[in-house]
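chain below, 246 aa
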Amino acid sequence: MTTDIRTATLETLPSSEAVALRMADLLVDGVLAKTDGKFRVALSGGSTPKRLFELLAEPELAKRIPWDRIEIFYGDERHVPEGHADSNHTVGQSVLISRVPVPAENVHPIPTGGTVEADARAYQKTLETAYGATELDPARPLFDLVMLGLGTDGHTASLFPGEPVLQEKTAWVGTAAPKTAPYERITLTYPAIHSSALVVFLVTGASKVEMLQRLREGDKTLPSANVTSEGRIVILADRAATGDAA
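prediction:
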């Protein structure tokens, strides 16, 4: 089964807080439902994911989650030094990972200590080791859950308009040097995102109205609209992003 953006499920929620809460439910339900092997999740950056991390770290919710059964990856990363304020992992580490009992060996930040190309290759090896193979099997997704955002230019992860990585057909990890955003980037590619049981776009704020409409229409000029999944695609949007804000 392949799902593309035109057959994605849209859930409209009252606020960005409600989007974060719904994402928390999907994550927890997914972890609890999986009985064989680790639950592999690719986290994203941004304000709504940060709020999600805060929710997951709250004691009442955190104690429901079997953290030893979760493997944490990232959908993309800015190529900045470890601990940099603009690093997705810095946020994930400080807000969530350091506050819950997830085993250190289950956390896989994207390396940024070498060249961007070498670090991308290293992360590919990390994913291959976790997956147990160097080629993707349609019957066995690489990720149980991939979280994605939606930029006002239509990008998702670090798949920016015009970047060569958009043409990648085989590698799971690639690089980008967007002219419209700071820093070189390392990102999951379309093939890696496709090998997923569930992709969830988190879309909040009035600045996303136009892009969300174009995404839902399947406008292939947007990198985000070319995302597919072996499983399901769900869009969690607040009313501001859908243009329905009261």
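The longest strand covers residues 232-238. The CA atoms of residues 46 and 149 lie 8 Å apart.
thats it, cya
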